[in-house]
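User: quick one, fold this
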Amino acid sequence: MSPLTKAKKDTMLVFSAFRNIVDSEKQKLTVLGLIPGERIMLLNEAKNGYITFVLKGSRIALDYHIAGEIIVNEVNK
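Assistant:
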């Protein structure tokens, strides 16, 4: 388990948990479908302070600090 900010580009990941994210941000991400067990694909590493990933067919960009509080596991191929 590691933060989303440590994942490599074009890697399939499974969301595990939130760490220190305020409830309002956590709720927004949950409404978008970021729930434990959900697969995401990291599109790019931190550029301009943002990380972009695909969740259920939608591209989502998060601030680097928020992305650092999202815990993921790499999918074993």
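User: anything notable?
Assistant: The chain has one domain: 2-74.
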